[in-house]
Amino acid sequence: MINQYRNIVKSLILLSVIGFICLNLYFYWKDTVPIVYAKLKDINETTRNLSPSTPYPKKRRKSMECPSELWNQVHTDIVPNEDLHLDWIQKNISRRDNIMESQIRLLTAFVYPDHISITTTSQRSFGQNVSCMYYDCLREEIENSRYESVFFPMNVIRCPRRIGAKYVSIGLEENGNGPKTQEPIPMIYRNFETPPHQISVCVGPIYGLENRWLQVAEFIEHYKLIGVRHFYFTIFNINEYGRKILDEYQRTGEIELTVIQSEYQNVDWQFHLLQINECHQRSKHHSKWVINVDIDERLVILDPKIKSVLELLNGYNDTVGEVGFAIRRIQKTGQLPEKYESEEQILSEMEFLKYNVSSPVTWGAYKTIYRPEKIAAMYYHWAYQRYPGTVAEYVKSDVALIRHYRTTESNILGSGWLSDPNYASFSIVPIEDPKFGEKLAKAVLEKIKYVYDQRDLNCEEIAEVPYQEYKEFGHDIFNCRFRNETGDKR
Ligand SMILES: *[C@@H]1O[C@H](CO)[C@@H](O)[C@H](O)[C@H]1NC(C)=O
Ligand SMILES: *[C@@H]1O[C@H](CO)[C@@H](O)[C@H](O)[C@H]1NC(C)=O
Ligand SMILES: *[C@@H]1O[C@H](CO)[C@@H](O)[C@H](O)[C@H]1NC(C)=O
Ligand SMILES: *[C@@H]1O[C@H](CO)[C@@H](O)[C@H](O)[C@H]1NC(C)=O
Ligand SMILES: *[C@@H]1O[C@H](CO)[C@@H](O)[C@H](O)[C@H]1NC(C)=O
Ligand SMILES: *[C@@H]1O[C@H](CO)[C@@H](O)[C@H](O)[C@H]1NC(C)=O
């Protein structure tokens, strides 16, 4: 009896194992069969190999050459909230025309579960008609896939999904000659049901002649200490020395970089909204909350019971789309250092250690942390338009605020703030939490030294074999110095 029972159980287990394997094989087959990587270079050869009696339709052959990915089997007919967008366009809500003759260059594109966003470098297209265009893995346009959409907000085009689309572009009607298009760009994957990051920072654009290397490290390490693990940076321009620190944080996977290249030689504060809007689209479905601040702004938590930004935001329910923070401006009277020199230099040049002459707390130009999916259009500081059913909340300034190390130079936007009555009664405000300060200084120093404390190659380090092998071309071909020439003891 027991043996029979055992055999039945064994057979059942065997059957289910076989079934499981078959299912797996089926799905494996289902996933892999269409992935026929034809030799793309020689189309004639591929065509020749096909039997003439079964001529493949052109479209079918193309899709055979592209992998058919499960996540990319989505077709949608509409752009979510499009009627609302059209209504807001009619009413000019969030409209801001800044640079009227700029080229409309494709910048980035993102694919979400139910739509696609494309961003451009133009600040003059609000509400304009534009076609979404879709391309397969071979950058060939997918037949009958175009969609008539509009720019909303400023430099953003929203499009429905198309099966197998890997690249997108836009078509702009010009004098009835049919749409003029441009080189398609890849869609960045944002097809997440739950965002992989709880909180990230959209960092204001980097531009100008001041050297940013130390400021970037101080900024990132500061936010890491309050629980942030991901950053979206945008470069208008930066010198090679400053770029090294960004490359370093990109290496560790902590930052994403958007680089804006336009036809203008100088891209500066007048282009700031490009970053705001691009970062909004970039963070959708990727980060639940986004801190919208500039590189000289640091969120500080004053309530000692609260250890991280997420803890601070925990109390807000799903209707809250935006949380505002008051600002304390601190006079940044000097320039950031040009190059790394020493530990002492770093300890005296970090903004949070160097500057403490502060304005009173104000709500004048408050900044927000927002939920990217709940916002339709962002403005510099806060949401221009939230979707219906969402509200904004404000954090008391004794719980948390934003310290803004604002330059006192006079040739900048908003200069003259020193004599503005909202800010004018200055006092010295020491850093709120010396322990936090110590941790921050240590983290910045470590990172800066890792990237910038670099040395010469000593000739003594070169192994005998390559040295003898190449010495015949002369010692000078080696980029190295003998220790007796440098006095370097390392
Ligand atoms: C493919 O075949 C056509 C017609 O035979 C010929 O004109 C063309 O040059 C060939 N292309 C290549 C890449 O060999
Ligand atoms: C919207 O803005 C445009 C350009 O400034 C203007 O021509 C138009 O009259 C405005 N429409 C409304 C409804 O305000
Ligand atoms: C834009 O498209 C809409 C809807 O298709 C159409 O009614 C409108 O006339 C178009 N506007 C322009 C300026 O072509
Ligand atoms: C959610 O939060 C908002 C704003 O804080 C509040 O007005 C609303 O009552 C809350 N809703 C629920 C269901 O708790
Ligand atoms: C304010 O900053 C100055 C200059 O860095 C420093 O000498 C001074 O000790 C600081 N004062 C306080 C109260 O932190
Ligand atoms: C330093 O040492 C190298 C290798 O031992 C030697 O060839 C060179 O002449 C020395 N230079 C000086 C300035 O002493």
UniProtKB/TrEMBL annotation:
Signal peptide: none annotated. It is a single-pass membrane protein. Its EC number is 2.4.1.-. The chain crosses the membrane at residues 12-29. One of its GO terms (molecular function) is glycosyltransferase activity. It is found in: Membrane. The keyword Transmembrane helix applies. InterPro entries: Glyco_transf_92 (IPR008166). PANTHER family: GLYCOSYLTRANSFERASE FAMILY 92 PROTEIN. This is Glycosyltransferase family 92 protein. It comes from Caenorhabditis nigoni. The gene is Cnig_chr_IV.g12421.
